[in-house]
Specification:
It is a single chain. The chain has about 375 residues and is α+β, with helices and mostly antiparallel strands. It is built from 14 helices and 9 strands. Strand 6 and strand 7 form a beta hairpin. Helix 11 packs across helix 12. The N and C termini lie far apart (about 55 Å).
Length: about 375
């Protein structure tokens, strides 16, 4: 039995619903049975304060479960449910069903990105990074999703896209726990941890081979995703790593810069992209990523010429003119409902970005994409 802290799936604890799993103590003993009602917010708070656990196997879909029937309708809920499953799945490489379930997850990641690119980018940019324990899983999901978007832009075949997204999703199998620990501690790695970091590309690929993976492109991309053309990367110092590995490395670097640690705040998406471009000496892959996301990617807060503060919801016809949803009026007062704005129109152009900490409003993906913002 592999126990997972309930904090990692706390967003599924909703007052008025039933417990979706059995709740256990640190020794695995049953405390509350699946199906019992979640009475109120106080009960949720008590469970979180006590520090209870759930069995990781409860997060995996049943083999005979119809996934389409089981998952909620909104894309945001499907996204969070996928992340919850990956929390346990990516930590169970030795389990017999590991490889087929990873392959199913790869297909789900690619499908979500294909039909809902703007909302997927929004969910990545607005991810709640406070749960450091699951940092490694969320980082892998974000990298895999952006790899899916970029490879579609490049018109890659379905087979190559599967290899790329799969490599991004499984690149850090051998260091997921260490990633979470380092993100939470704010302290640099020890000598032993640095050795684990250097070894993780080869170790992760070895675990995949042991699980039965025979996809050479996928395996090579995992092994080489920290190699750098010219030989300055690791673990082998290759002078000419494969193209697929370099796409993974580029997007891995971008998402890492955008994610916070206990010791630092996240870089805004624009700065993360700009830093990546400068540090890579104008690498075409970095340019392509910036073009794909836009200068103001979905999830970015901006100020409009009208004085309103808005959040970007969709990329526009140019990288500088996305579609946004105004959250405040020109005086800074919160609007009852977000209002759509086209920043290519006079009076609604973007005058600058707004730091996350300066925006006190909370707006969900459902409010912007499912329920739709009010028309301008």
């Amino acid at each position: 039995m592999h126990l997972v802290p309930i904090e990692e799936v706390q967003h599924r604890l909703l007052p008025g619903t039933a417990l979706p799993w059995n709740v256990r103590n640190a020794q695995g003993a049953l405390l509350l049975a699946k199906g019992l009602p979640v009475v109120d917010d106080a009960m949720v708070a008590a469970l979180l304060q006590r520090g209870v656990f759930i069995d990781a196997s409860d997060l995996l879909p049943a083999p005979d479960c119809d996934e389409d029937d089981r998952l909620p309708a909104s894309l945001a809920h499907r996204w969070y449910a996928l992340e919850d499953r990956l929390v346990s799945l990516l930590r169970s490489a030795a389990q017999p069903a590991f490889l087929p379930r990873v392959q199913e997850s790869v297909a789900q990641v690619a499908a979500l990105a294909d039909g809902n690119a703007d909302e997927v980018i929004f969910l990545i940019m607005r991810h709640d990074h406070a749960r450091f324990a699951r940092y490694g899983v969320a980082h892998s999901l974000h990298t895999a999703s952006l790899c899916g978007l970029l490879s579609r832009h490049l018109h890659w075949s379905d087979g190559d896209r599967t290899s790329l997204v799969g490599a991004a999703l499984t690149m850090n199998l051998a260091m997921l726990e260490l990633q979470g620990a380092l993100a939470a501690s704010g302290i640099g790695p020890s000598a032993a941890e640095r050795e684990q970091i250097r070894a993780h590309p080869l170790a992760s690929a070895r675990w995949l081979r042991e699980a039965g993976l025979c996809d050479g492109l996928w395996l090579s991309a995992v092994e080489q995703h920290h190699e750098i053309s010219g030989g300055s990367g690791y673990p082998l110092g290759l002078h000419a790593p494969g193209e697929m590995s370099q796409i993974v490395r580029c997007i891995d670097s971008f998402t890492a810069k955008h994610s916070p640690r206990a010791s630092r705040k996240p870089l805004p998406a624009q700065q993360a992209a700009r830093d990546l471009f400068l540090q890579s000496s104008g690498d075409p892959l970095a340019s392509l990523l910036i073009k794909e996301l836009g200068i103001y990617p979905p999830g970015c807060y901006v100020r409009l010429a009208s004085g309103e503060i808005a959040v970007v919801t969709h990329r526009g016809e140019s990288v500088k003119t996305p579609l946004v949803a105004a959250l405040t009026n020109r005086n800074g007062d919160a609007l009852c409902q977000p209002i759509r704005r086209d920043t290519s129109r006079a009076g609604h152009g973007i005058t600058g970005t707004v730091p996350d900490q300066a925006v006190k409003l909370q707006v969900s993906a459902e409010d912007l994409y499912e329920r739709r913002a009010a028309p301008a």
